[in-house]
Amino acid sequence: MAVPFIPPSFSSASLCLCLLLLASATIQTRGQKVETFTYVNEGEFGPYITEYDASYRVLPIASSPFQFAFYNTTPDAFYLALRMGTVRSESILRWVWEANRGRPVRENATFSLLPNGNLVLAEADGRVVWSTNTANKGVVGLKVLPNGNVVLYDAKGRFVWQSFDYPTDTLLVGQSLRLRDPNKLVSRKSAVDGSFGIYSLVFGPGGITMYINYVASKPLAYYNYSDGLLSFSGPGDSVTFVCEPETEDNFAWECKLIINLSRPKYNATLSFLRLDIDGNLAVYTYYDPVDYRAWEKTFAFFSDEKGWLNGCGLPSKCGAFGVCEDEMCVACPSKDGLLGWSTSCATPSLAACKEGVTPKYYKVKGVENFLSTYSDGEGALKLEECKRRCNIDCKCQGFLYWEKDSRCWLAPLLGTLSKVSNSSRVAYVKYLK
Q1: Could you tell me the pLDDT band of residue 64, with boundaries at 50, 70 and 90?
Q2: Where is the Bulb-type lectin domain positioned along the sequence (predicted)?
């Protein structure tokens, strides 16, 4: 083994002192101070209009047009979130990421970066509701990047944790879905309720599928990549939401997720892709230079005007129930025939359904829905057998039946029925005597 050369003037005592100082410097680097903070959810609410008509308290952590805040839509149930927009534009401020989704905190909750590098949201009594689990991993600080990514970084500027790895219902420009987590977006339950909703968008090996959850024993697809639009065959294992110039003079921009989604005629860097409360996939673009109405909805997946698929294909287009034609809800089916549609239109109540109670059905001719579009159904199956199977399932609202093909789809959710020219495609709606 080679012995390191030590100059004659460099005594062994000096060498020991040098090694000691080097060890001390290494310890100091590893133990570099963390830029800690603690903010308490207290005080007056902000004066500006925000999405979901939320009340909010801003925190001094920001990178325009993004800023941290506590917000609530119901009393004493707060989310720690990132909002997007500027007060100068007098436009609505939108919420694009939440730390504690589905687990709201109360008044006087604290948001802290601890000396050990862990980022923590806790109730006033100290109970931890959410954290980044980054204790003792070299974190020295937090910052919000210009693209809205919230990062914890180490002494060398490397990201130890980033919010882009934990999307909620939204992808910001530059944010990705991967074949392994994060691989999905989940809608918000309602404007008032910020917990997880029933719609999800999932990125898998073949592409993107959209699901309705919790209404049947397994998720129901209301869109899948089989039509080729949002199919994926690589390269790589991720898809990224990007907005970039389409022309050299930046006159037009393109926002993409696998395919082109929107083409704003201005800088679209400040855009986001969201799985909305109603299950539609939309792009919202913020144009910072204007002082009024800075937001524009530049894309909606289920939209004849701004999207790729017929607007009537969205299961929630007509709310709980209805017949849709040319993107308009034109009728409310009933046992007395087709009535005028309103937001109160609904399938008959099946609360009294039980074994031994034989239901009845009324027909709606010339309609389809998402089930017959994105699942195979069963068949050939006689009408009476299809009806029998729905009879014994109290969660079955009815069924779709293609008379010419003898094909049956049991429907735990009927939703929006899309009008078609083929009158042999029929929906049977269950009701109790």
Answers
A1: very high
A2: 46-165
pLDDT digits (tens, 9 = 90+) for 9-42: 333 333 232 322 322 222 233 558 999 999 999 9
Task: Please give the DSSP secondary-structure letter assigned to residue 93.
Answer: B
Instruction: Quick: pLDDT tens for 361-393.
Output: 999 999 999 999 999 999 899 999 999 999 999
For the record, the structure tokens of 126 come out as 């100290």
d(CA 20, CA 333): 84
Say what the pLDDT of residue 423 is: 96
The contacts of residue 161 (CB under 8 Å, 6+ apart) are 119, 132, 134, 139, 151, 152
Sheet harboring 207-212: ordered strands across? 184-188, 196-204, 207-212, 220-223
> Do the beta carbons of residue 61 and residue 144 sit within 8 Å?
yes
Residue 239 exposed, middle or buried by CB count within 10 Å (0-12, 13-18, 19+): buried
3-state secondary structure of 72: strand
**Rg of the chain, C-alpha, whole Å:** 28
